[in-house]
Design goal:
The complex is a heterodimer of chains A (320) and B (287). With 320 residues, chain A is α/β, with parallel strands linked by helices. The longest helix of chain A is centred in the N-terminal third of the chain and has 17 residues. In chain A, the strands form two sheets. Chain A has a seven-stranded mixed β-sheet. Chain A has a six-stranded parallel β-sheet with strand order 2-1-3-4-5-11, sandwiched between helices. Chain A starts with a helix and ends with a strand. Chain A has two domains: 152 residues, Response regulator (Rossmann fold, 3-Layer(aba) Sandwich), CATH 3.40.50; 135 residues, Response regulator (Rossmann fold, 3-Layer(aba) Sandwich), CATH 3.40.50.2300. Helices cover 45% and strands 20% of the residues of chain A. Chain B is built from eleven helices and four strands; from the N terminus they run H-H-H-H-E-E-E-H-H-H-H-E-H-H-H. In chain B, 77% of the residues lie in helices and 4% in strands. Chain B has a two-stranded antiparallel sheet. In chain B, 51% of the residues are buried. Chain B has a single domain, classed as ABC transporter involved in vitamin B12 uptake, BtuC, CATH 1.10.3470. In chain B, strand 2 and strand 3 form a beta hairpin. Chain B starts with a helix and ends with a helix. The longest helix of chain B has 29 residues. Classes of the chains: A alpha/beta (320), B mainly alpha (287). At the A-B interface, helix 1, strand 2, helix 3 and helix 4 of A face helix 1, strand 1, helix 10 and helix 11 of B.
């Protein structure tokens, strides 16, 4: 080893050893699958609500599978992690498998994985999905003459399962559904264009999936060109630019997740009792900029009349 | 203890990714072709493995199917670049591009869960993460050692000779094209093996799980070559260099995660650390 390389290695390892000896004894790990505004809102709610003396340590996988494994290894190898909270389905599924034999309480925030499907009785989830009917009712209140909506969803297992329920709920309200499934970002550019949307469609509806949510700027161009609405199923999408959305506040999901995990750690509840806890408080999130521009008449023109007061009829309105 | 656990974790992850790095190393060092296609064949191996294990519930059969698909990918990339019809980098990027659709066709959707698929071994069925990771790493290790042993003889020499001077090999009566194709098939089959074993451990195959893997493979291969005390370009040397490079990479990764580096600076920090290691060892070599 030469003069340059050796000090570098020594400094690196000494740093690790010193840092590791000064770890707080009890901690909670909160793992984010990627960097996203909505995920940060969940984190904010979780940290704010956490009442225990345990320190909440946040990890971020930055969307890479190899990072997830390293994060789970770091948590497993470090002393004092009393519980693990993960956000999203895939991450929760992987964590449930990883900690199967370690008997660490696991909480999947904004996830819908049953303990039996992963054989891990230590797992419970906070489900933040909103019934399709709530979204459709909000659209009907805003645009009473709606006869058709276009549902744009990612072509993945979870999303595909939601399509029949969406169609059923829409059918019961007398609304037709045009379904467009997309595989990738590029696919989205090719498949979701002004010419591919049915002429009688009143709105493009997107559900909670990363693929469609990450393409909101492109979807906005399409809806503005057609003069229709962009409606979502979560707060994060409205933050990104969707006109309005019916869903659960990301912050509130973090708050409820912290409460559930706290109860489990204080043994007032067991994970199997909690199971998949559904979020109950739905809000209508409205893009404030869009709302203001609609009032002043500077927003891109819609091709049908809308009733903005109808927004508050569906569920409490939260300007975003 | 935490350092030891990090080291154990880095070594087991290194063995999981070792086939990928060794595969890239074979084409880069011995065949002298810059082949990025393992990024695509890693996912192809994962997808074919996931689909096959769901149908047959046989881990070993699914593993072979995944590797075969990877080898086929290698043959295709060779055909694309044969006789300098296409630049090797462009050919491999083309394959990655095509494989995206192929993988989607096989999976039917971008993400597929393989549930509680198990690895049967000595009459026992292993379903938990730790056992599967251990067994997956051992299987990778055995396959790599067997292959390295095989290539340490005459066959390996032919592969290296084709990389060094294919024209001479042709004049000597060897079919250099066939040997180069076999080399690329081998390299991509190894990448597919890494993808298949990653799938069984994490429990799902995803269309985007290969993102950044070519970078990991090439970087760790170069880092391993630069920090290893042995510099001879042998197959055993290559295997050890790749494992060493991967172990260091995952060790640094786990430490950056441990120190909770802000996501904004994470890749920047990782990149700087790798550059420092490469530069420092280059200076050492010059001295």
């Amino acid at each position: 080893m030469n003069k340059i390389f050796l000090p570098f290695i020594v400094a690196f390892f000494t740093n690790f050893l010193c840092a590791e000896s000064s770890i707080a004894s009890t901690r909670i790990a909160l793992v984010l699958p990627a960097e996203h505004k909505a995920l940060r809102m969940i984190e904010k709610g979780f940290k704010k609500e956490w009442k225990g003396e345990e320190e909440v340590v946040v990890f971020n996988a930055l969307g890479e599978a190899s990072n997830v494994t390293s994060i789970l290894d770091t948590i497993a190898g470090a002393p004092g992690f009393a519980a693990i909270a993960t956000i999203g389905n895939t991450l929760t599924q992987q964590a449930a498998k990883y900690f199967l034999l370690r008997k660490v309480p696991l909480l999947g925030a904004a996830a819908n994985i049953t303990a039996s499907s992963v054989n891990n009785p230590q797992l419970c989830c906070v489900v933040d999905e909103v019934p399709a009917k709530n979204i459709l009712l909000a659209i009907k209140k805003v645009a009473p003459l709606v006869s058709k909506v276009t549902l744009v969803v990612a072509n993945d297992e979870k999303m595909l399962q939601e399509i029949p329920f969406f169609e059923e709920d829409a059918g019961s309200l007398g609304i037709d559904v045009q379904v467009i499934t997309v595989d990738s970002l590029q696919d989205m550019t090719n498949k979701v264009t002004p010419s591919s949307i049915d002429k009688d469609s009143t709105a493009i509806v997107i559900l909670k999936d990363h693929l469609t949510v990450s393409q909101i700027p492109q979807l906005l161009k399409v809806v503005n060109a057609l003069g229709i609405l962009l409606v979502s199923a979560d707060q994060g999408s409205v933050l990104e630019g969707a006109h309005f959305g019916v869903g659960v506040s990301e912050y509130q999901t973090g708050v409820v997740s912290a409460q559930v995990l706290y109860d489990i750690l204080r043994e007032t509840k067991v994970p199997s009792e909690v199971g998949c806890q559904m979020m109950q408080q739905f809000s209508t999130f409205v893009d404030n900029n869009w709302l203001n521009s609609m009032h002043t008449g500077s927003a891109p023109k819609l091709r049908f009349e809308i009733n903005l007061n109808g927004l508050s009829d569906a569920s409490p309105v939260q300007p975003v | 203890m935490q350092v030891l656990y990090s080291l154990y974790s880095a070594i087991s992850q290194a063995f999981l990714y070792a086939p990928l790095a060794v595969g890239v190393g074979y084409s880069y060092v011995f065949l002298r072709k810059t082949d990025l296609s393992p990024e695509g064949t890693f996912v192809l191996g994962a997808c074919i493995f996931a689909k096959t294990i769901l149908i047959t519930e046989n881990y070993y059969f699914a593993l072979c199917a995944g590797m075969l698909a990877g080898a086929l990918g290698g043959a295709i990339v060779f055909c694309l670049q044969k006789n300098r019809r296409m630049n090797p980098i462009l050919a491999s990027l083309m394959l990655i591009y095509i494989l995206y659709s192929v993988n989607l066709i096989f999976l039917g959707r971008p993400n597929i869960s393989i549930g509680n698929a198990c690895i049967p071994l000595f009459g026992k069925e292993f379903v938990d993460y730790e056992s599967q990771r251990m067994i997956g790493s051992i299987i990778n290790g055995i396959i790599l050692c067997a292959l390295t042993f095989l290539l340490s003889g005459r066959k390996g020499l032919l592969l290296r000779a084709v990389g060094s001077n294919s024209a001479l090999m042709n004049r000597l009566g060897y079919k250099s094209d066939s040997i180069a194709m076999l080399g690329l098939m081998l390299s991509n089959a190894l990448a597919a093996l890494a993808g298949a074993n990653t799938t069984i451990i994490i429990g799902y195959a995803d269309i985007n799980m290969g993102l950044g893997n070519a970078f990991i493979a090439i970087t760790t291969c170069l880092v391993g070559r630069s920090i290893a005390p042995f510099k001879r370009e042998t197959y055993w040397g290559m295997l050890l260099q790749c494992v060493l490079g991967l172990t260091l990479y995952f060790f640094i990764l786990s430490k950056l995660i441990f120190f909770n580096i802000t996501p904004t600076y994470f890749k920047l920090t990782m990149g700087i650390v790798l550059i420092v290691i490469l530069f420092a060892s280059k200076k050492r070599c010059k001295k």
